[in-house]
Design a protein that fits this description.
This protein is of the alpha+beta class. The protein has 7 helices and 17 strands.
Length: about 350
């Protein structure tokens, strides 16, 4: 109960400065996404190409480096959402590039996360390297009900042997409301845009099936899409709109589009330019599309790219880039080549 009271206090401090929120009380919740960039343990998993992350590899991935990686990841994950919800953090966080249940167990046992009681949901996927998607969640705020891994299905006969991460879909209860979370890690930039376009089409089908089962469900589609918000995979095939006013009933809004297009900020830096591959897209049931501030049910409030000074390289050729765990064969004891993203939600207390 103390977490809920604290959540209410922070929400009130944030929103009650405006007249439209006067004399109302709210609960606030944070939902995040973070690409953990190769969270591998030091043990070989049969059938997986994880040899780069073994003590016998050239980079000598060992217990010390793995333990440090866990500590670094847990620091970021525990601080996500605390810009608004200090001491509380995110109700749930989608993550990618995790190897197995073992690394998730070790991660949740890191003190910043263990203290809050984080659990995880993971379904082993077909990726040959062994990297999967998962959901971390705080059971004080989110109660899962069902989880399924929808496979990525190649469309062409010549691609029948192509395998990659599926779409981890979880339904449950957040703030007493039915929500769905679809966690993605779409085909990399080594593949052409066609493969990500196909992912966008398939996730749209997943979204539509969730809405068919419950027209009132509130859906978060999150992940490392390996495309920017304006790319065809996101804008055309998934159908995530740039502007709130253009979202149709049952449609999707991508709040990160203007972060990149108008503010020039992103989540990963390549050749001196920012991309914003890490996104959390929301369906119309989470949105105030008419300009009102109606939080009688759970609704979107604000979003940000999570940023801390320690997440960036401070010198050298790649100064200003996200500080990676390793690069060019050298261990940097960093975090990830991606920055996390967070959305905040409000719900009025009756």
């Amino acid at each position: 109960m103390k977490y809920l009271k604290f959540t209410l206090l922070i929400a009130l401090m944030t929103v009650c400065s405006t007249q439209c929120f006067a004399e109302k009380k709210f609960s606030a919740y944070a939902v995040g996404f973070y690409n953990l960039e190769n969270l591998f343990d030091t043990i070989h998993d049969a059938g997986k190409n994880d040899y780069e992350y073994l003590p016998t590899a050239s980079g000598k991935w060992n217990t010390m480096k793995y333990t440090s990686k866990l500590a670094n990841m847990s620091r970021v994950l525990s601080e996500m959402g605390t810009d608004l919800l200090k001491g509380v953090g995110c109700a749930m966080i989608g993550v990618t590039e995790i190897e197995n249940d073992n690394v998730l167990t070790d991660l949740c046992n890191q003190e910043p996360l263990k203290e809050r009681g984080y659990n995880f949901i993971h379904i082993e996927g077909p990726d040959r390297r062994g990297i999967d998607c998962a959901l971390l969640y705080n059971p004080k705020f989110f109660t899962p009900e069902r989880a399924v891994l929808h496979p990525y299905v190649p469309e062409l006969a010549k691609d029948s042997g192509y395998v990659t991460r599926g779409f981890l879909t979880i339904t449950g209860s957040l703030a007493g409301e039915h929500v769905g979370v679809v966690i993605n890690h779409w085909p990399s930039r080594f593949a052409t845009g066609y493969y990500r376009d196909l992912a966008g089409k398939q996730v749209r089908v997943v979204k539509d099936s969730l809405l068919k089962a419950d027209p009132d469900i509130k859906i978060f589609i999150m992940g490392d899409m390996n495309d920017d918000p304006f790319c065809d995979s996101m804008a055309k095939h998934l159908g995530a709109r740039q502007e709130l006013k253009d979202v149709e009933d049952g449609g999707l809004w991508n709040p990160w589009w203007n972060i990149l297009a108008k503010e020039g900020r992103g989540t990963l830096l390549y050749d001196g330019s920012w991309n914003l591959f890490d996104q959390i897209v929301m369906n119309s049931n989470l949105l105030n599309r008419d300009g009102r501030n109606d939080f009688s049910t759970l609704k979107y409030y604000k979003h940000n790219v999570f940023s801390r000074d320690y997440l960036f390289q401070t010198d050298g050729k790649y100064k200003g880039s996200p500080l990676r765990t390793k690069a060019g064969g050298a261990w940097l004891n960093g975090y990830s080549d991606h920055l996390p993203v967070v959305v905040y939600l409000l719900k009025e207390q009756k």
